[in-house]
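User: Could you go from structure to sequence for me? I need the amino acid at each position, not a summary. Structure tokens:
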């Protein structure tokens, strides 16, 4: 008797597993899925229901912020890949996703190599310094200092105007 029901039971189990995988696939994140993002960019991801905890393997590569309505904003912080786990209150893994952060792309990005030193520029329509990971430390430091000074001046002016 078991020989007659064994293959049928396995076929039904396989059908149930396929149906369950298809239903879970509609959630938007699944085990083994890869989520691609560009550095310094943000993307929105729909989360499964009943999320309690989000864990990013390496927060130097990506950062996540939970939003209302089951949405999460993921920001690319550094080049590379890391994992993101989404857990429910009991610690069950609802999603295990690879987050892959790639270099910026676009017609407005210009990369200049001076020997081994690299400089990045954003050209839309005129070229201006753009701080990008991997630029030479001198160029990166100078551009970052200018950007920080400009931001500080803007905040000081805004505070003075509010008084």
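Assistant: Here is the amino acid at each position, in order:
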């Amino acid at each position: 008797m078991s020989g007659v029901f064994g293959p049928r039971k396995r076929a039904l189990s396989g059908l149930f597993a396929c149906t369950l995988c298809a239903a879970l696939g509609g959630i938007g994140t699944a085990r083994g899925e890869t989520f691609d993002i560009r550095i310094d960019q943000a993307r929105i991801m729909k989360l499964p229901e009943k999320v309690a905890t989000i864990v990013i393997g390496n927060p130097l590569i990506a950062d996540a912020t939970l939003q209302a309505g089951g949405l999460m904003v993921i920001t690319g912080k550094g080049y590379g890949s890391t994992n993101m786990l989404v857990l429910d209150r009991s610690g069950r893994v609802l999603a295990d996703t690879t987050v892959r952060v790639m270099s910026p792309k676009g017609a407005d990005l210009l990369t200049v190599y001076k020997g081994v030193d690299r400089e990045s520029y954003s050209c839309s329509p005129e070229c201006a310094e753009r701080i990008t990971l991997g630029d030479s430390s001198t160029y990166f430091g100078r551009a970052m200092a200018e950007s920080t000074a400009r931001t500080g001046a803007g905040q000081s002016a805004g505070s003075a105007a509010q008084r």
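One structural detail worth keeping in mind: The longest strand covers residues 93-102.
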